[in-house]
Amino acid sequence: MARDKEKRSCGQVVAEWRAFLWDPRTRQFLGRTGSSWGLILLFYLVFYGFLAGLFALTMWVMLQSVDPHVPKYQDRLLTPGLMIRPCTEGLDVTFNVSQSQTWHQYVRALHQFLEPYNDSVQAARNAACAAGRYNEQPDDAVPNYPKRACRFERSQLGPCAGLGPHGDYGYGSGRPCVLVKVNRVINFFPGKNKSINIVCAAKREEDAALLGPMQLFPPNGTIDLMYFPYYGKRVHVNYTQPVVAVQFSNATASGGSHRGVCPPTPHGGAGDKLAAAWPSACASTATEPARSAP
């Protein structure tokens, strides 16, 4: 029969733990001598130092192949897409005209987005360029020389500039504005030396009457050639993306969602290859009917 282990007292347990932490007889700390701990620490120092050096070498080799000014691979970004502001989930802009808390966030977002477009800011940062032609700026034997950006002044957006006495971009009067923004693609030329137009219409036939007429600012939704090409944020530091404002002049308050589509088309006409190549950005507005306070 196995001999039962003797029950140890609390003092014995504490003494064993104390001896494990530091044994003055063998001069061991946590069961190891100083030389043993030194060898272990040296091993891990060399091991992790080797891993860190290998990682640093890999990153250095990779960065040697990357141009800090231009993306190495641009085959999937041949043409820019469009996006709207205010940027909302699902691109749905829903509000109640009589309840300002439902549209104040849109006004704040538009104010913040358009701050760099203020006329005074543009006059200080950017140059007045010749309209109707590309703003090409060769390096002239100085690689990545800083490029001059053309002005896009906020006042071009008319009632959608938010500069009036109300500054609510039409949301308080049921004539909301959305901004259509052209995304940046380095060294992109629209083609055929013709400016681009943003043309907006109802996406579904049943929405045409509910959305009502749409006004575009600048007139005809024109994006001038002088904003192309774009050379990258490190070289084209003050570049301002052109935008087109779309105002829904007489949208019907219905409590439903009405969708519109704004594809960009060149002045060259619908047959131009660029018109088919550009993706569309869908925007929707939904204005709920006014409710009387309880």
From TrEMBL:
PANTHER family: SODIUM/POTASSIUM-DEPENDENT ATPASE BETA SUBUNIT, SODIUM_POTASSIUM-TRANSPORTING ATPASE SUBUNIT BETA-2. It comes from Geospiza parvula. Keywords: Cell membrane, Disulfide bond, Glycoprotein, Ion transport, Membrane, Potassium, Potassium transport, Signal-anchor, Sodium, Sodium transport, Sodium/potassium transport, Transmembrane, Transmembrane helix, Transport. It is a single-pass type II membrane protein. The chain crosses the membrane at residues 37-63. It holds the Pfam family Na_K-ATPase. Belongs to the X(+)/potassium ATPases subunit beta family. Gene3D superfamilies: 1.20.5.170, Na, k-atpase alpha subunit (2.60.40.1660). This is the non-catalytic component of the active enzyme, which catalyzes the hydrolysis of ATP coupled with the exchange of Na(+) and K(+) ions across the plasma membrane. One of its GO terms (molecular function) is ATPase activator activity. It is found in: Cell membrane; Membrane. One of its GO terms (biological process) is intracellular sodium ion homeostasis. GO terms for cellular component: sodium:potassium-exchanging ATPase complex. This is Sodium/potassium-transporting ATPase subunit beta.
